[in-house]
Amino acid sequence: MELNKIYDFAREHMEKSIEVLRKDLNTLRTGRVSIHILDGVKVEYYGAPMPLNQVASVTAVDATTIVVTPWDKSILNDIERAIQEANLGVNPNNDGDSIKLYFPPMTEEERKKQVKKAKEFGEKAKIAIRNVRREANDKVKKLFKEKAISEDEHRRALDKIQEITDQYVDKVDQIISKKSEEILKV
Asked: pLDDT per residue over 99-130, tens digit each?
């Protein structure tokens, strides 16, 4: 039935909002440094911007150090410049073979800033989910207007879409809560 397609549409697009949220949260710093903090860094390579992880190996050697080793040593300075421009709050140390990033332990204030950022990402995800709800509701209203569904089906469909929306909003809250705990844990 047409309504099931609308429910599937809503779930699929809300799930994508959750995926985007998870990717965004991976860029946040927690007590342990994560290589995902470098996900947004692009390096100029043969005239084209390339993601850092496609031109170098990126490894976290301990809780506060990341080592970036380019496969082509000639772009070492380009990588160093790209990391500086990314403004990660850390200075790259170039030893001629690789670049080491030493992240200082996070202060209480930095942790609170990261939690605030996480909550902003959560709000962004909730807005995206609500936009999907609006789109799904519009599709149901259109079916009703075209007399393809009855008034009861119309009301039930809107309730069902709201139920799906509530599930995804709860999921966002759980993910943000878990991430906030992770960030604040010393």
From this structure: 999 988 888 898 899 999 999 999 999 999 99
